[in-house]
Design a protein that fits this description.
This protein is α+β, with helices and mostly antiparallel strands. The chain has 4 helices and 10 strands. It has an 8-stranded antiparallel β-barrel with strand order 1-2-3-6-7-8-9-10. β1 and β2 form a beta hairpin. It is elongated.
């Protein structure tokens, strides 16, 4: 915003001009009109209201750009979960086959203020490529969902904690760590498991 426009807007908010913007945005408690006296206490209250709004905005921006540290309270809320997994399986034995699988899943994750949470998952759907004896086949279908940390489709409960820009979700004996970005608006997990030849990408996007 142009500096002159910004100063004019703030002055207008304090003394009653630009009422449409300031009143509807809830920035000021008092408005003034022509021919009425300006009360110092009311002007000071308007100043304080604007100062509070500016401070809150600076804090929000600071959390988004990483200059202000997040707390676990900032992460409480509901997230949309998106899950992508790829699998590679080599041929085993003379009658075996090689297979490439790719599938997605999703759902909703809620982080509660007491360190507990709920996860509602949906079934996985995807595509597989099977290679056997020089022949290939492609199939599509669905698999009963494994959600973000191999929980069954439906509603699941878990515990969570936040430390060092990392959110740890624990369901049973398994813990999945998410990197926190965009001021807690997005949580990201990526992993590779050489034991079962899988790679995963899980994102949690905050919706409320």
């Amino acid at each position: 915003m142009n500096k002159k426009i910004m100063i004019g807007t703030i002055t207008g908010c304090l003394f009653g001009a630009t009422l449409g913007y300031c009143t509807t945005s809830g920035l000021i408690p008092y408005t003034f009109s022509a021919g009425t006296p300006i009360v110092a206490d009311q002007v000071n209250t308007n100043f304080q209201s604007l100062a509070t709004a500016i401070s809150n905005l600076q804090t929000t921006v600071g959390k988004l750009n990483g200059s202000v540290a997040l707390t676990s309270t900032d992460l409480v809320g509901t997230y949309s979960m998106n899950y992508l997994q790829n699998e590679l399986h080599g041929q085993t034995g003379s009658g075996g086959y090689a297979e490439v699988d790719s599938y997605t899943s999703g759902g909703t994750v809620t982080l509660n203020s007491d360190g507990t949470g709920t996860m509602t998952g949906i079934n996985e759907t995807g595509t597989n490529l099977t290679i056997s004896g020089g022949n290939t086949s492609i199939g599509q279908g669905s698999v009963q969902g494994t959600a973000a940390v191999h929980a069954s489709a439906g509603s699941n409960t878990f515990t969570w904690s936040y430390s060092g820009n990392n959110v740890a979700l624990t369901i049973g004996s398994q813990t999945v760590n998410f990197t926190v970005v965009a001021g807690g608006k997005l949580l990201i997990n990526s992993s590779n498991n050489p034991t079962d030849n899988t790679t995963k990408l899980i994102t949690l996007a905050k919706t409320s």
